[in-house]
Amino acid sequence: MSSTVGQVIKCKAAVAWESGKPLVIEEVEVAPPQKMEVRLKILFTSLCHTDVFFWEAKAQDSVFPRIFGHEAAGIVESVGEGVTELAPGDHVLPVFTGECKECAHCKSEESNMCSLLRINTDRGVMLNDGQTRFSINGKPIYHFVGTSTFSEYTVVHVGCLAKINPLAPLDKVCILSCGITTGLGATLNVAKPTKGSSVAIFGLGAVGLGAAEGARLAGASRIIGVDFNSSRFEGAKKFGVTEFVNPKDYKKPVQEVIVEMTDGGVDRSVECTGNTNAMISAFECVHDGWGVAVLVGVPHKDAEFKTHPMNFLNERTLKGTFFGNYKPRSDLPSVVEMYMKKELELEKFITHEVPFSEINKAFELMLKGEGLRCIIRMEG
Known about the structure:
This protein is α/β, with parallel strands linked by helices.
């Protein structure tokens, strides 16, 4: 790779020229990394709902033309000025949020919400100079959440890269850079169920099943999956889900159903839909005295919800989490090790695989609600 250091690299990237239109494989120019930046070769990427949400751009303004993608794994090609902890050849996971290691959040043991590198879906340029590193015929192509992994090469701030075990298979651990880890950490780091406890999971997509996997690893005895789509129930058993509730099957609110099923409520609940009704249900279905509900799903920008203050006074706790409370650089390598030790199972999350040339198939699958994660192979 050394021959490309300091040079512009020409490579293939899937460019979104406008909202909702199929991505187009184009030859793009990728500039060398600048101060505190790293250029990496992406080997595998996967599609997350966040990519689709901003590609559709129905609920918000999105910058185009743009290169989406943020769940991925790759190898460092070259590093910019000031980068000391990464070197060419290192295996890394790019992350949509970061860890500068210097701000108040990074120095706090409780927070992972870095002031400098926290997710910014509006910004389409690099922090160092406010410019893009991608271009076609001299015209800028914008970045997405600092990662833009739907490109054979990309440039990322060093604080958004987790250096991982080089023996870890990149076609599996690439899915740990967003959704699965978010759900897993919401349970293990925030809800913290004890062995033998009961946990309700609202929403059985990839994030919710990551949360269920966390409950399974924690030794929960009852894991109740809640979803409007009953076809998800059978597959969720592989993730430790023991019982299923479809709110459409009942005349009363689902929280009342769960309270009856569990003799007073579950010990923990994790909400992974972003729907405010599900948030209320997740909070109101936990047991008084010790119940903890954790919100993971991102709501509509104008969303708000109501619950009676007595629910808090009766010693129920409501928490929120971002990226499962994992600090990307400090904590993600240990999540990869959980997979390497065969504690965490990733294969069951991967339901489809396509070559890069067929990336639009991954979008079609997600829009149809088919499968969990689709791996996109950059080569072949």
